[in-house]
């Protein structure tokens, strides 16, 4: 079984002296729990692995009981340290306050219990961390699987990755495409929306959120003003509601909305979003087209290629901490703009059908980026680009 690169980093942190709670965030089905199952046998530390998945949200006492059990097991084992792992922590009401109380109690009483928390809702976890656990944690964000990972684990070609995306749990279903599509829609999309968003966050119009997700997948890679979005959705409410729903979808690792690059924070936030899925499976699973048809349809294929570059940049933007935008002025456009510190990179994706774009020249003249890059026809082959960690571009 493939070991993701995050495993060694987490192991080294756990083997250090007790300093911080380790918080592992990431969308569903990216291998957070699998990584823990790979990690524990490699550690010499006695441990306890619990999940809040089936626990009622009101049972915050469960969390205290689990912690007390860890203390008892540490004492009984005679070991110098103990590791407590809690999965789906966001399911417990007021979890961050309880974790703070228990962690601080162990610190005061010199009880050497190290802690790993896992969660699939980035918004809820980060809210709890910033409100209650400031200074007590480190975050490890696990994004969707990359092309090299799917290639190594399942022998996938670049074509299979571009179309079927990066969900390892669905990899053995792709020979029966209808079954694969149903699995992604029912077990991944529906579960993420219902369990990670609707059950844990107040959403006044759940049907609207689902339609926004479907529309965003349909238009992934395209810029759409909120006014146009409202025109396509019934009972759409106002732009603030849509922006909030898009944020929820992004924090669950489903669909993001890139802002326009302007070198100006205020104008960035006022821009029309450019939809971008976090995983191409979210597009293909909802399409009526097949893998074979898409491969020989230049327009469909070009769209998926650009989206695969977008998913690569989006997933790494969180873990590598750079900002990702698009740029547009009139009919001139740059597909992606990466910004880290004072460095700016313009990136254009060119598939076979896409004509020459004068947008990059205008963008360079206006913003003087540190680097401009072309991915695809006439530039870096996209299959090579998908093997690069974007932080290396800086």
Give the SSE order as H and E letters: HEHEHEHEHEHHHHHHEHEHHHEEEHEH
Mean pLDDT: 88
Low-confidence stretches: none
Strand order of the largest sheet: 7-6-8-9-10-11
Per DSSP E runs of 2 or more residues, the count of β-strands stands at 11
Structural class label: alpha/beta
Cα shape = globular
Q: Kindly state the percentage of residues in helix.
A: 40-55%
* First-residue to last-residue Cα separation: 32 Å
- Return Rg in Å: 22 Å
Largest sheet: 6 strands, mixed
The DSSP helix count reads: 17
The oligomeric state of the chains shown is single chain
Tell me what portion of residues adopts beta-strand conformation: 15-25%
Whole-number tally of structural domains: 2
Summarize the model shown.
The protein is α/β, with parallel strands linked by helices and 394 residues long.
Task: Explain the overall architecture.
By secondary structure, the protein is of the alpha/beta class. It folds into 2 domains: 6-141, P-loop containing nucleotide triphosphate hydrolases (Rossmann fold, 3-Layer(aba) Sandwich); 147-393, no CATH class. 45% of the residues lie in helices and 17% in strands. It has 17 helices and 11 strands. It has helices at residues 6-15, 32-39, 61-77, 95-108, 122-132, 147-154, 158-164, 177-198, 206-218, 226-232, 239-251, 265-269, 281-284, 291-295, 298-319, 359-367, 382-385; strands at residues 21-25, 47-51, 82-87, 113-119, 137-141, 255-260, 274-277, 323-329, 332-340, 343-350, 371-376. The strands form 2 sheets. A 6-stranded mixed β-sheet has the order 7-6-8-9-10-11, sandwiched between helices. Strand 10, helix 16 and strand 11 (371-376) form a beta-alpha-beta unit. Helix 1 packs across helix 2 and helix 4 (95-108) crosses helix 5 (122-132). The longest helix is centred in the middle third of the chain and has 22 residues, at 177-198. The radius of gyration is 22 Å and the shape is globular. The protein starts with 5 loop residues before the first helix and ends in a 9-residue tail after the last helix.
């Amino acid at each position: 079984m493939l070991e993701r690169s995050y495993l060694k980093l987490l192991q080294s942190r756990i083997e250090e002296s007790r300093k911080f709670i380790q918080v592992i965030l990431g969308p569903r089905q990216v291998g957070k729990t699998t990584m823990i199952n790979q990690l524990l046998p490699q550690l010499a530390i006695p441990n306890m692995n619990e999940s809040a998945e089936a626990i009622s949200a009101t049972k915050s006492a469960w969390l205290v009981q689990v912690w007390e059990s860890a203390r008892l097991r540490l004492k009984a084992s005679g070991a110098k340290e103990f590791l407590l792992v809690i999965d789906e922590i966001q399911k417990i009401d007021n979890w961050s306050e309880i974790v703070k109380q228990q962690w601080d109690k162990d610190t005061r009483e010199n009880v050497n219990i190290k802690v790993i928390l896992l969660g699939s809702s980035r918004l809820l976890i980060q809210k709890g961390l910033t409100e209650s656990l400031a200074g007590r944690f480190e975050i490890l964000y696990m994004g969707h699987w990359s092309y090299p990972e799917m290639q190594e684990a399942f022998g996938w070609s670049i074509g299979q990755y571009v179309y079927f995306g990066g969900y390892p749990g669905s990899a053995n279903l792709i020979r029966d495409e209808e079954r694969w599509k149903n699995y992604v829609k029912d077990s991944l999309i529906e579960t993420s929306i219902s369990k990670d968003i609707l059950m844990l966050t107040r959403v006044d119009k759940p049907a609207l959120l689902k339609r926004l997700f479907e529309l965003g997948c349909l238009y992934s890679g395209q810029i759409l003003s909120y006014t146009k979005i409202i025109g396509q959705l019934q009972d759409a409410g106002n732009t603030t509601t849509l922006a909030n729903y898009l944020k929820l979808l992004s924090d669950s690792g489903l669909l993001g909305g890139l802002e326009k690059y302007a070198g100006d924070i205020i104008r960035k936030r006022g821009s029309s979003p450019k939809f971008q899925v976090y995983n191409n499976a979210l597009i293909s699973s909802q399409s009526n087209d097949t893998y074979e048809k898409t491969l020989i349809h230049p327009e469909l294929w070009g769209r998926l290629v650009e989206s695969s570059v977008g998913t690569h940049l989006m997933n790494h933007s969180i873990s590598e901490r750079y900002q990702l935008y698009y740029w547009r002025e009139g009919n001139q456009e740059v597909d992606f703009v990466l910004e880290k510190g004072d460095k700016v990179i313009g990136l254009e994706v060119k598939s076979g059908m896409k004509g020459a774009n004068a947008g990059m020249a205008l963008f360079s003249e206006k913003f003087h980026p540190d680097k401009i890059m072309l991915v695809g026809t006439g530039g870096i082959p996209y299959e090579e680009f998908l093997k690069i960690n974007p932080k290396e571009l800086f």
